[in-house]
Amino acid sequence: MSSQLPQLFTARLLLRALQKHQAETLRTLANGPKIADNTASVPSPYTLETAQDFIDGMQEKFRSSNLLSLGMHRRDSGELIGVASLRVNPAHLYGHLGGWVAADARNQGYAAEAATALMDYGFAELGLHRLGSQCFSRNKESARVMEKIGLQCEGCMRGAFLKNGVHEDMLVFAMVREDWESRR
What we know:
The protein is an alpha+beta fold and 184 residues long.
């Protein structure tokens, strides 16, 4: 894997590294409704320091931990509307998708567009064999995105994640390379 964060383009999005001047915007968006509640690792409250640390660490996490995180920006305006990520396990050629979209940009196809770009990057550029994701079973919107991009639901892990003192069920979705190739 290259040590430099890539820039990915879709019809409506530019996925790229966040810049230091975007920390306040990131803080505001990450504190929006359902972000922390529906994600495994976004803290609440999301402080300015958290945003700055996230931005400052993007390149190093990519280089040392195989975690590719990119800001979702509208191509027409440059506006930051979310974050998309791909965590790669090089030993198994597996990638795990994650991310979130700001409240005012939801239900417009941006999550699926960003996830598709990362999925294509993972299979085409990184040579992944398998790519997947998971979501809380109550998060129907995320499940819909995964199905929309072609990931198949492989099942439910009951009580698999402790979130805010409650054991949550997790839905597991994935695709293997041959499925991706047949969709192209």
